[in-house]
Amino acid sequence: MRGRSPDAVRRAIETNDPLPGGGGFAGEVDGSLVRDVLGRYPLFSEEDDATTWSHDPTDLDVPDPVPAGHARTGEGDERLWDLPDPSPFEDEESAVSAVRTAIEGSLGAVSTDGLAVAFSGGVDSAVVGSAFDCPLYVAGYSGSHDVAAARTAADLMDRDLRVVEITHEDIERAVPEVARAIGRTNAMDVQIALPLYLTAERARADGYERLAVGQGADELFGGYEKVARADHRVEAETVRGAARETIRTLSEQLPRDALTLRAAGVEPVAPLLDDRIVREALRLPGSMLVSDGVRKWTFRRAAREFVPDEIAMRDKKAVQYGSLVARELDRLARQAGYKRRMDDHVTKYVRSRLE
Predict the structure, then answer these.
(1) Can you tell me the distance from the alpha carbon of 314 to that of 311, in angstroms, rounded to the nearest whole number?
(2) pLDDT tens digits, residue range 55-79?
(3) Are 21 and 275 in contact (CB under 8 A)?
(4) CA-CA 20 to 30 A from 212: which of 168, 194, 264, 277?
(5) Is 185 a member of any domain?
């Protein structure tokens, strides 16, 4: 069992507590494969054989992910937990205070042994980085948005920044390594994983064994435009409903990130996905997730306790675009003969690298 002790997981099952504290768990307990409600740890069994399992899909012939919040036995999958639906905050100041306290508690519980921080210059990674006296790492092509944003943020925080300047040779080498590690070849997942992988590689080469990341804040606190608009990309008709819908997608995203980091030789640390933060985020009404068009409103207000206002309120591009990895991977695909007129040409290129 990773993340929590078997006894803690048993208590969560017995009490029907979906958020029993900590940062999630996955593994075997009493003959069942169990994964926490957000799916923060990857867990797979061999297809049609629940007795053969692993946290790493490359260990299995046909890996089948255990759904978040479920137990798997030879009889099939059984839902154990769903996301809580608590009454929302009525007062914004109380919400900000509760979120701030939860962040302080989560960051304070993280050991700094062998720790470095993946740092893009946005509010999420800056809040994480603010708590630890260790190097901050950013990966991107020369002239990329993420490198520039990380430099200005590190200057504002008076922190040491180590830049991993990505080259085409890095991407060509890493594409098959990343695709095999995550068990996915679709363009979006590989584009997201590549800068994280190259960041982790550099941190490991520098002697760090754990990498703290800011994952989870966008999903928990309403960081996406589709949530702010509750538009056609989500089924929900309210901002709060759209945020809950997006939170449920974490079980698909987080295994990709964890497997990427472990393939590079470091263990992921995700303080913003701690249960105490999740509990408070689920209490936020739509007006405290998005206010006057500002996404992650309550999180940004709470973040002012940890980082300068300029960082707390800044917007940031998604990592695959901010690092320029998506653009340059597209260029490599076209140079290899996979033109844009082809359907999903970048995915075809990734698959060709595995052959």
Answers:
(1) 5
(2) 999 999 999 999 999 999 999 999 9
(3) yes
(4) 168
(5) yes
Query: Could you give the C-alpha distances from 135 to 114, 156, 178, 307, 314, in angstroms and in order?
Result: 11, 15, 24, 16, 22
Whether residues 162 and 105 share a domain: the answer is: yes
Closest CA to 300 of 289, 291, 312: 312
Q: What is the pLDDT of residue 53?
A: 98
Sheet holding 26-29, edge to edge: 26-29, 32-35, 70-73, 76-79
Specify which residues 136 forms β-bridges with. 117, 161
Distant-in-sequence, close-in-space partners of 269: CB < 8 Å, separation ≥ 6: 110, 115, 210, 211, 212, 213
> 103 and 35 in one domain?
no
* Residue pair 275/18 in contact by the 8 Å Cβ criterion: no
Q: For the domain that residue 197 is a member of, what is the CATH number?
A: 3.40.50.620
Q: Are 83 and 282 in contact (CB under 8 A)?
A: yes
How many contiguous H segments (helices) and E segments (strands) does the chain have?
17, 14
Tell me how many domains the chain contains: 2
DSSP conformational letter for 324: S
From the list 278, 284, 299, the residue with the least C-alpha distance to 21 is 278
Q: What single letter denotes the amino acid at residue 150?
A: A
CA torsion through residues 55, 319, 303, 207, sign: positive
Structure confidence at residue 342 (pLDDT): 86
pLDDT higher than 90, residue 316: no
Q: What angle do CA 11, 40, 33 make, to 5 degrees?
A: 55
Residue 266 and residue 211 in contact, taking contact as beta carbons nearer than 8 Å: yes
| Residue 164: per-residue pLDDT | 97
pTM, two decimal places: 0.94
Range 149-164 average pLDDT: 96
Domain that holds residue 193: 92-325
